[in-house]
Write a structure and sequence with these properties.
The chain is elongated, with a radius of gyration of 21 Å. It has one domain: Gyrase A, domain 2 (2-Layer Sandwich), CATH 3.30.1360.170. The longest helix has 19 residues. It has 9 helices and 6 strands, in the order ββααβαββααβαααα. The mean pLDDT is 88. With 224 residues, it is α+β, with helices and mostly antiparallel strands. The strands form 2 sheets. It has a 4-stranded antiparallel β-sheet with strand order 2-3-6-4. Strands 1-5 form a two-stranded parallel ribbon. The two termini are 30 Å apart.
Length: 224
């Protein structure tokens, strides 16, 4: 059984908008002018921040990203698929022998390693006895690795960052969100420069479920 840690996840932008600023500018002008092809000379950071602050974000749905994600856990998959307006394709436990995949653990605790090894041994034993893979997979652990493809528009991606960069999330998810933001920001810096968890953009809205640390005034998109 191969063991990998969170830091070994890989993220790749397979598809990204070529002219995001121009597309958003056309969408904005469409609401205000009779000539939808008119584009301002420059889409500024000030305008990007205004759209976020004013929550005028529907034009961002015209900007799409496709992201290849590898070596994350099934626990991660259960979390990320809660985000709406995204399209997901993931490795199938129905068609593949899943003991070919590693497990994702942050720490090699003896109990966790033993539990996962036991699960994979039982899984292979069931398959060898003729149990179909889609039934044998019921014993597989949440630590089992998965690869997936995620297509998401910029509006939903910003919502993802606002929620998943928060310290209340588990380390694997925060690490993924931080790395993805570092890939997305160069594609559209006028917009993504202003994106972060709720406390970075303004005020925490978690109430009694707040992390308790306080606003990340000097938050720098790095894991603490």
């Amino acid at each position: 059984m191969e063991i990998k840690v969170y830091d070994q996840m890989t993220i790749e932008l397979m598809q990204q908008p070529k002219y995001p600023a121009e597309i958003i500018a056309i969408a904005l002008n469409l609401t205000m002018k009779s000539d939808p092809t008119f584009v301002p000379a420059k889409f500024t950071e000030k305008l990007g921040k205004f759209l976020l602050d004013a929550d005028h974000t529907s034009p961002l749905e015209h900007i799409n990203y496709t992201i290849l994600i590898q070596n994350v856990s099934r626990s991660f998959l259960a979390q990320i698929t809660r985000h709406r307006m995204g399209s997901f394709t993931s490795a199938s436990q129905h068609y593949q022998y899943y003991d070919d995949y590693p497990v994702i653990m942050e720490k090699y605790k003896e109990e966790m390693e033993f539990a996962c090894q036991t699960a994979f041994t039982i899984y292979r034993s069931l398959v060898d006895k003729g149990v179909r893979k889609e039934e044998a997979r019921q014993v597989l652990p949440n630590a089992a690795a998965v690869n997936l493809l995620w297509t998401v528009n910029a509006r939903s991606l910003i919502n993802f960052f606002r929620q998943r960069l928060c310290l209340r999330n588990v380390k694997e998810m925060r690490m993924f969100a931080q790395r993805l933001l570092s890939l997305a920001e160069p594609t559209f810096p006028e917009l993504f420069k202003h994106v972060g968890p709720q406390c970075y953009e303004g005020k925490c809205k978690q109430g009694k479920m707040s992390c308790g640390i306080g606003p990340w005034v000097k938050w720098n998109k790095k894991e603490k």
